[in-house]
């Protein structure tokens, strides 16, 4: 019985280690995101806790909103033994195609309590240009 428990523990540890580590660090992760529409705007709300607004880039071009940045892993320089790993680190990117014509020149973004909220005004006619959006906080 003890051997069986040891083998089970070994398998659990192996699979936990495999699941816990990102074997493809070049693959960007995607923060959880809500996209919804009001009468006048399309709203994008993205969970980016642990980041500062200056760590995040927001770009709009050709009806596509691109949000990207990097969350550093502050434990990599320590000798640690993880028991659970769920917080994603490294480069992230999220691309969202706007479902309507929008006024790209009046998009604005705010950061509060770990969320970035991007407000994209709807328009009768698309006002497209490539713009970088500054995040206020």
UniProtKB/TrEMBL annotation:
Per UniProt, which keywords does this protein have? Stress response
**Which residues belong to any copy of the SHSP domain?**
24-136
Q: Which SUPFAM superfamilies match?
A: HSP20-like chaperones
Keyword Lyase in record: no
Tell me if Plastid is a UniProt keyword of this record: no
Q: InterPro entries from the entry?
A: A-crystallin/Hsp20_dom, HSP20-like_chaperone, Small_HSP
Family matches, as PROSITE patterns: SHSP
Source domain of life is Bacteria
**Entry similarity comment:** Belongs to the small heat shock protein (HSP20) family.
Q: What is this protein called?
A: Small heat shock protein
